[in-house]
Structure formats: C-alpha cells, structure tokens
Design goal:
The structure is a homotetramer of 374-residue chains. With 374 residues, the first copy, chain A, is an alpha/beta fold. Chain A has eleven helices and 15 strands. The first copy, chain A, folds into two domains: 185 residues, Rossmann fold (3-Layer(aba) Sandwich); 145 residues, 3-Layer(aba) Sandwich (Rossmann fold), CATH 3.40.50. In chain A, the strands form four sheets. A seven-stranded mixed β-sheet of chain A has the order 3-2-1-6-7-14-15, with helices on both faces. In chain A, α5 packs across α6 and α7 packs across α8. Chains in contact: A-B, A-D, B-C, C-D. At the A-B interface, α5 and β13 of A face α5 and β13 of B.
Chain lengths: 374, 374, 374, 374
C-alpha cells in the first residue's frame, strides 16, 4: 500500500439476491478503517456510464445487514459492450466500454469490487481485458451472486439459502391444505437452468414429485406418481416445479400436450403440466407461483454470514492488490479464486448424484420413472 | 342435561382456513369433560353420507392447535341437496338429504357442530328445516369460517389474520427488490368478492396501488399512479390485486384490454393488468400469485385465540341446548347469534369507509382516481 | 385552517413498541400534503428540553413502515416536571416544564402529536394545563402506546399483537422439546400489572398453566396441575408466566419459598417458581426469559394497520383543530376520544371474564385451583 | 442380505435438536421398502432397558418432517453403564449394560441406528465392545447430533442452522430497540464449550461484542468497546454471549466481579457481566436468555435437508452391513466415517481462524482487545 489513500468503487449488478447489502457492508467496514475510500456506483455498470456515485462511509452502511435488495441499486440493462440508453441529454448506443474506462479513470477509482452473477463478472473481465490492451487498467475483485447456486467456482452462493427457506415455508403451508382437502398442490419455484432450489426445498418440505431442468419428465409418469399415492391412501400430493423444468424431448418454452397440441408456457410450466395431470387423474389441483418473493427481503442468517465472509475476502484482496480474483466458498473456507476461471462454468444437479439419490431413497419421484406399462 | 351422555358430531366444510383444528380442539376439550361424547365426521357433510366417523377424545386433539388444515378433512363436493358421488358400491345422485338425516339418527348424534362458510351453514340450515318439517330434528351450532373475513354476522373470522400476515410478508420481500431494481411488482391475493385481504395487507406492507372488487379500476388510472411515482423519483411501485378486482364497466372474468380485445383472466387478473400497464408505462413488471399458500399452514396467534374462543362458545351452546346459533365476535366479546341471520349476508369493503379513507390519506391509490386529462 | 402553514411536532416517549414508525409515517403522510410542516422531536420530551429536531418530509418516512423501534428515538428519563440531566453545558434539575413550553413556542410548533403510554400522555396533559394557566397553549393530540394492551380507553393498542406472536412462536418451539424430553418448560413474558400477553400467548400456543398478576397463584396448586398431567400420561407441561405474576398473599418482588425463606425475584419470578415446583414434583424444568425480544423488531401486519389508522386519526384531529384528543379503537372503528379520560385508567384481565373462562374450559390452570387436599 | 427380513432398531438420545424427526423419517423411508422392519426404541437407551418399542412403518413417519422434537422421545438419564431408575416394579442401579444387550437380542434387533451426541455415541460404542468381548454383537450405525456444531468428525450437524436462525431473529428484534432507546442489549445463547452459535448469530445479526468460551474476555475491555461506540455516536450496543463464555483467568461458573467478590453465575453469565458493564459505563442494559427456544420447534430448510441426508446415509450403511460407522458431512458430500473416530473429538472456534478474522474485520469485539491503558 502506498501513502496515498486508495479509492475503491463497488457495484451490484443483475437480479436481486438476499445478502447484497451484507457484502457491501463487509467491504466498507473492512476497507474503511483508514487506508481506503469506498465509492458506491449506482445501478451496476450503468452508474459508470452516467457517473452516478455515492460515498460509502461507515454511517452509510449502518443498519443495512438485515435488509434485502441493494442500497446501490442494480440494473439488467447496463452492459457497456451493448448499451442502449440515455445519459443526461445524449442517447447512447452500442459499445460504450471506452466511456466506462474513461469514467473510471476520471472518478479516480483504483479498483472496483464487482458483486454480480456470471454476466456481470464477464463484463468486468472484458473491461479489464480492454483496459489492459490499451495500456491502462480496470482492476477488479469479484463477489459471485446467483440465487440459483449454480456456479462451479463456489460451493455455495448467498441468497440461495433464503430462497430455499421461503419455498419450503410455502410448501409447508400448502401441505396442510393438500392433506385436509385431498388436492394436488403445485408450486413453481425459480431455476431456469438448474434445479437446486426445487430439489432442496422439495426435500426440505416433503415434496412428492420434483421436476427439474436436469431430469426431463413425462406427464404420464408424473400422473402415475400421483395415482400411486392415491392407491396407497394418500389423496393428495405436492409437486415442486423448477420454472425451467422440461418434458422429455421438449423444450423449456413449449410443452407437447397429451392431446397432441403444442402449448406455450405462459406464466409458468407448472400451470400447464398441472392441467394435463388433472385431466389424466381427475384430481383437483391448485398452483402457486412464488415469483420474486423468492429473491427479496431479509436474508437468512446463513446467507448473511456467507455474504459477510465474501465481502471481507474481497476487501482483503483489494488490500493485498490481488486483482482479478473472486471470493469463493471451498469446503469450510472462503478463499480467493481467479476471476476468469469463475466465469461461464455452471454447476447443475447431477441426476446420478447424492442429492437426487437421497430424494429417490425417501420416495420422491422426478417424473422420469418408468410405469408398469412402459 | 339428561343423565344420558350426549353424542355430538363435528364437521368442517369448504375451503381450508388456518384455525380449523383450534376450533375442533376447543370443542372437544370443552365438551369432553364427561357430559358429552364427540364424534368427528370426515370430509364435511360427505362423512354423513358415507358414514365415516372418528372418535374425538382428548388424545385425538392433542398437539393440533398449531397445525393448519383440519384433522377431519373437508370437501367442496358434499352438498346433500345436490350430490353426485359414490358411496360404497352405489352411485348417488341428486338430493340425498334424507339419507343424511337418517344417518345422523343412526349415528345417534344429538347435535352437530358445523364449522364452515356461508355455503356450509346454509346446508346445515336446510337440513335443520327439512328435519323439522318431517317431525325430527337436525340440531346445529355453527362456527363461521371464511378466509375473506366478509361475514356481516361477525366482526372477524379466524384465518384472515394469518392470510393477511402471509401476504404482508410476501409484499415486504417484493418491496426490497422493487426498490433496488426499479420494478413494478404485482401480487395477486385472495378475495373474489371482498377486498379485505388486499386492503389490509396492502396497508400493512405499504402497497402503492390496491385493486379490490368493491372499487372498479381503470387501467389508465393505475398506470397514472405508477407514473406519478416515477415523476417523484420513485422508479418502483407495489400493486396489490384482489383476485376479484374488476375494471370499470367490466366483469370479474373478462377484461377489456386497451387494444380493444377482450381477454379472459386465466391464472389471474394481476397478470393481465400488469401487462397492460407495462405497455402503457414502459416499466418492467413482475407478478406473484400466492394462491393457496394464503390459506394453509400454522395459524397466527390471533387466529388461534379467536378460533379457540369460537370453539368454546359453540360448545357452550351445545351444553345449553341453544341450537341454531352460531359463535360470532361482536366488539370485544364472542357471543352466540342466530344461525339463520348469519347466512347470506356479506360484509364488503365500504369505498367511503374509514379503512379506504386511511389508505387514501397515506397515499394509496385504488385505480379509480381521475387523472389530469379526465 | 389559516393561510399560514402549520408546524406540527411529533414525539415518541417511553419503552419500545412495534408500530411506532408506522404511526409516524401515517402522520407525516396525512399532514404532509401541503397544509402542514412536520417536525420530529428527538428522544421524547427530552428533545423539547435540548431542542433536538429533525425535519420529517415524505422522504424521511420512506421505507420505515416495516421497521421496529422509532426513527425519532425515545427516552425513559425525560419527564420535564422531574428532570435530571445535562443540556449543552448546563446541568438541569427538577421542574423544567417552563423551558419545554418556551422551547415549543420558540420552535414555532402549533401542536404536538404525542405517541406514548400513560406516563407520556400524562406529561402532555400537565404541560397543556400549565400552558393554559399561563395564558398560552400546548396543543396535543395523543396516540396511545403500550405493549401490554392494558388501556381502558382503547380496545387494542399496537405492538401487543406482535408481542403475543413472538411469545407464541417461542412457546411453540418449547412445546416440541417439552413433549420429546418430558420436561416442564417455563417461559416468562412481559406484563407487570396486566396478564394480557401471558393469557393470549398461552391460549394461542397451548400453555398448560398461565400465571398472571390478576390471579394470584399458589405454588402447590401449580405443582398439582403439573402432577395431574403426569398422572394422565403427559410427562411435560408448559407454564407461561407474566413477569408480574404474584403468589397468593405475596407481592410482585418477594416470593415466600416453601422452605420458609423469602427470596427476591431477580431476573424473573419464573425462575424462582420453577425451582420450587421442580423440588415439589421432581420434574426437570427449563426457563426462558424473552425480555426485550418481545418489544422490538418488525411489527405484525395487524399492528401496522392499527398503528397506521391511529396515525391517520391523530393527523385528522390536528387538521380539524380537535386538540386534547387521542386516537382509540372502539369496536371496529378508530375514533378520537378525550385525552384526559384516557389517562390513568388501566384495563386488567377479568378473572371472571370470557377469556379466562375460555382458557379454563380448554383445560388451562391458573394456579388458583383448589387441590384435593385443600 | 439374507432372505430373512432384518429388524433394525432406532433411537434418539440426549438433548433436543431440530431435525431428529427428519432423520427418523429418512431412515424408515429408506429401509422400509421391503427388506427391513424398523423398530422405534422409546426414550433413548432407556427404552432398551424398559423394553418400550413402537413399530415404525411408513404411516408412522408421515407428516413428521417439519416437526421439532422426536417422536421416539429422548432421555438424559439413560446411560446403561451408570443407570439409576425403576423398570416395572424393580429398581435398577449401576451397570445394566448386560440387560440392554439381552433385551436387544430378545427384541430380535439385527442392528441399531443411534442418533445422538458424543455421550450417546460413546455408550453405543461401549455396548458394541462389551457385546464383542462376550462373543455377541451390538451392531450400530451412528448419526451425529449436537446443536452446538462442535464435532470434529462432520463439517456441520443438523439443528445448528435452526438455532443460529432463531438467535439472529432475536438479535434483529433487539437491535431496533437498542438503537431507538439507546440501550445495551445482552443476549445469552447456547454454547457451553464452543462459541459457534454466538459467533454465527452475532455475525449474522450485527452483534457489536461477541463473548465465546474460546476467547476469554475482560470486563473492562467489553466496557471499553461499548464506550468506544458511544464516543462514535452510537449510544447502543448488542452483546452476544455464549453461555460458556469465561472471563480471563476465570472459570465458566464463577466470575470475579470488579468489586473483588466472586459471584456464581446463576441463570446466566450474561446477566452478571451486563451488571458489571452497566456499572462501569452507566449505560442501561437489558438481558434476554433464549434458553430452550433455540433447540425446539420446526427445523430450518437447511437442517431438514442435512438431517434427511444423514438418515439416508445411515440407512444405506445398514443395508450394506457397514456397522460401526457414522454419517458425516465432508465438504459437499455426506459420507460414512468410522464411529470410533467420531467420538470425543471436539471442534472449537479457532481464535485465529477465518471466521473470527471476518468478525474482527467488520468491527466485532471479543472482549480480549487491549485498551489504551493496557
């Protein structure tokens, strides 16, 4: 560290995720001891385009630990390499990455802590590369963020535990009605590509059938599972559906109905499959779509601790000058890993892995089981 | 009371509602002291058709106070005056009320505690009248049940507080995302005819716009409210929609879209209106449909106390021989009211009442406000 | 209303209570429409002594609805008629009410919304009287506040529902351990003079014994209740104790132990009685003291709605010039009542009232029952 | 596996821990597919002394996943090597392990799944050794259980996440009051030897001072931390205290008060230290003792999943004949480890480890810091 006080930017990009404020607080608390000045960048990379900054001193992060959302704001439309928007009076269009690098320099930022998912980290990486090619520098330390917990680079991401908790609580509530009123309850949860939320919350709350993107399902098999239960005297079932669940040979958007028509999945695959299964089994069904309730609000204790550890680790990389790294949970420890290795490598549910095996051992069906007539 | 021990039946009818088990427990605990034997009737009036009973002693109700659902089961297809179903080997069809009265006599039931909504209580009333005309008796004490809190006869019904709590918590969670990510969050809650759940949870969790059946809305006015907020620097809004909310001049099922087409409200009016408003304002929206999560699971402390008071009151009417009464909350007291007066009289939100006034005073819009161009 | 914009102060006094921020928000939203300027007074009447004010515009109350505590701060040592403290460099002592009236005038306050309990409202009343005698005015509108729900003047106070919910949840958790591990679980809850929290949470969560100030208990009777349960095969019991519960002939602080000694209740009457009963029954006991957990944190939906209604009502009295009134819940409506009538009249649990009767009907013991040997 | 159906016992020993029922359910569901009969043993090893068994078929474990406690009951006074109790009419005393082995044989148990902590697993191990010496067999598969998460053998134990969640929620609630009312809030949490619960919940909820057994504290240092905060304008502090926290040079039970007296820690070290610190700082304090609320009630989603994985793993060891093993979480996987290696090796908080470092980086004090005058 030099005698000059460093100026470090921090931004949050992409969708909401409980724990973002805990990361921000940990970074500010760790860096703010005297050697650094922390500058909050508003609304993801958008704030580096429009030059919207906010000073983050200790007072600014007081009381934010239990709060959902991000005090910095976020944006999904802030890719500097493919931008379309207005800044001040000017309409900007296309690649504005040069402007971002220029603004970063102008703001005197010695480095930026980037909290975000795959897309956000990839942008940071590209900015870093472009700056390098031009003889400058865009120094980054990353903090991974995905509600879906589907990054290869880290065993866990914050936000996931909160989402699973919310879904489990909802399924618990559906359970009592299902049982008393002999109904099939469907609940659609997040997970476009990875079924972790559905799998964990289904296991936690006793889902009878769990449909995830990694295990294509057949409607007849789902209906069979529900009828099997009825034959054993259970007139109700709980079906947990990841939003990205797909029928065998199908695709995530269209579903081949058993009557031969192709139907678009508007507002949820769960609703369509529920209808088909209701027709096949004659059992009444009800559908819940939790939506963004899963990614807002106060984080669980687990996520607050993990997010705080990520924030401290990122700040320590800044202090050590270990740029182009990202905080990651590996076994029991939070450690820095190379940022570039972290991008683009998704961790999906292994259909033959322990967790699916645990689910099957306890009687969960995934809709891929062969029936007596198959 | 005669020397003979009385036999009292108890049944739960209609949709799920947190607190049903608390009522059952209170009735059994109050009656079970020695003077009465309590017989649980399975699945609403259906159990009086199929003669499915279960003995309810103290052990049977142990530990059920915090549980959602009903240990007796319920049914929505059990109207003895318009029945269609199979009992044993026989298919039954049409009016089977004579069979119900016969089975009641055969089971030796001196009276029945009927926990249920309007429909269920009306059936009890008709059975009572038919028995009377035939020189017999179907003695009833009612306990009101509606998640919607829309009965004229009682200030509050159990289950409502739980539902409002669940919706408020969901809206709290949506709030943080809305604020950080500059989005319009829509949440559809229960309430086909009455907007109480939407109004209370919207007030409790700071909804910006609340749409209820009692105040028909205009899409342009809703969009206007959201744009007003944007102009005041609030890029986000929370819209709470009762499932029965209707557009001005519209009806609860069809909505006249602003492009002139009529669109059926499948899976929620919220989604349709959200889409229209998104088109008008250009602001991204996300929709949550809480569905049956609102009516299952453990009851709130408030609902457990109210349900217990209703159960004790009903049991006391049984002991006093005050048949054809129903437990009701009037001011601070739970008192018996005539059953017949309780049926068929709905309590709706008064558009000019205190609660709507409170909401408007704190800035809530209902979508009926005139805009600058009206 | 005159042409001049009114300046209205607002303060919160006494102990914490979930819903204070909801009241503040409702007052500011209702008054802030243009006709009034709202001035927050810091730390109760203390802020009128030290002249600490904060401007409350719409932005200041944004997002505070779900938050516990009070953004204005509070104080328990701020009685202007009996003050001891330091303001700036001067030590103040004794009656500083003249200073308070002077500061109120200096701050240009046309009236003050006082949110607080009995003590706080009484101070407001005395200030008002003193000002009147001196030919001036201290205009007040009150909002009642007590976690204990023990005011004669209003059917309910905000905060109480939250407290009962927290206690019920704790008792629910203790229940499963008690049952599995055959223990007697004691939980001490708030309520120095009134047993409402103990009674409601005990009813809600299935307490077996409830000890409240209004029904003095005998240790032998409590032990008897627990032994009765054991004889009926229930090796566990839950005892809910209001902190102000007193033994027959005893006083709230000292308890005559069965070994003849008098023991001071340090850190809870529950612990002392638990020890005595453990000695008498030989059954292991565990004690939980919830303490201030009961009065902090996010308010329940019920309390947020009630607090908002109180706030709007108070603001409307300000606008109408109806000073010396207080918002109160009467039956289904929030209405203004005279402030003076509201002070000093406590509502206690009626040992012969409906709620105690409901508890006894469902098997709850209050420790006043006569045993077989009495 | 032979043609004969195996008979497998299952018992739960020691204190309560959320997730016990999830383990039982997973074992029964996995084993119950046809090859095994599962026999529940009541009240830990006590049930093998008194021969109290219950058949565990699929119906017996239906609906128990979300429930706290254990459907089998537990006991803390059931050590067969040092027993004192009554069975039937006979008083038993001393070493009854021979009887336990005899009863196990008589009950036809081919093996026992033992869910319990260190003490319980050690008893199982000794029974196994004694049986071996006598030419017989007491076949065991263990499932670790400790709320404190302090086993060397497994990265996590179920119940811990729930406990941390409950403590964090309580601290969140205390936070708002502390802040509004300028108080020092003390909360005592579980952890006699290990400070994991205090450390995690303190980190999660923003505790300012955390006192744990692994880092002896000085009262003056704690007071100093609180005064430092006051000097920086924070008139409140949150102190999280593990029940086993000890003063420097002190012992867990006695605390040397600053006035020279030695005071016994009755009902909590927190209360004593709070009093001392109040005297030193003049700041009002309030103490909460959460007690058994931490170890009862519904498990968190995380704990339900972990407990289910443990149960399935244990059942698979039974099916594989891998006796004397225990399920353990190692990195991302649940795997069997040797039972004997698992016993007696405690995992404590490392005062120089990552987590304490994270806490210090974010400003947490542990009471071991040297003050300006040290």
């Amino acid at each position: 560290m030099t005698g000059r006080m460093q100026r470090i930017g921090i931004l949050t990009g992409g969708g909401d995720c409980p724990g973002l404020n805990a990361v921000i607080r940990a970074v500010v608390r760790t860096l703010g001891g005297g050697s650094c000045e922390v500058v909050g960048i508003r609304n993801g990379f958008g704030g580096l385009i429009s030059q919207e900054y906010v000073t983050l001193d200790q007072a600014a992060v007081s009381g934010i630990l239990p709060r959902g959302g991000t005090i910095l704001g976020s944006s999904n439309r802030d890719d500097p390499f493919d931008f379309e928007g207005t800044v001040g009076d000017s309409a900007l269009n296309g690649d504005v990455s040069a402007l971002v690098l220029e603004n970063t320099r102008r703001a005197g930022l010695d480095g930026v802590v980037v909290i975000g998912g795959d897309g956000t980290q990839f942008i940071a990486h590209r900015l870093s590369e472009r700056a390098y090619q031009e003889g400058g520098a865009f120094r980054v330390v990353g903090v991974p963020k995905t509600i879906d917990n589907d990054l290869q680079a880290t065993d866990r991401t914050f936000g996931f535990d909160t989402a699973v908790g919310i879904c489990s609580e909802a399924i618990d509530r559906l359970h009592t009605t299902a049982e008393s009123h002999h109904r099939v309850m469907w609940v659609e949860v997040m997970g476009r590509h990875a079924g972790w939320i559905a799998l964990h919350s289904g296991l936690a709350a006793g889902g009878d059938v769990i449909l995830i993107p990694e295990i294509p399902f057949r409607v007849a098999s789902v209906a069979g599972a529900i009828e099997d239960r009825r034959r054993r005297g259970k007139g109700f079932s709980i079906v947990v559906v990841a939003e990205g669940a797909i029928p065998e040979g199908g695709d995530p958007v269209y579903l081949l109905a058993t009557d031969g028509t192709r139907r678009k999945s508007l507002g949820g695959i769960a609703r369509i499959v529920a209808e088909e299964v209701e027709r096949l089994t004659g059992l009444e069904s009800r559908t819940t779509i939790l939506g963004h309730v899963q990614r807002g609000g106060t984080p669980s204790a687990f996520d607050r601790v993990l997010a705080t550890r990520f924030g401290v680790c990122a700040a320590q990389q800044v202090l050590a000058g270990s740029w182009n790294t990202m905080a990651a949970l590996r076994g029991p420890s939070v450690v820095p890993v190379p940022l570039v290795s972290a991008v683009g490598s998704q961790r999906l549910v292994d259909p033959l892995g322990e967790l699916v095996g645990v689910a099957r051992a306890t009687g969960v069906r995934f809709g891929d089981e062969l029936g007596p007539t198959d």
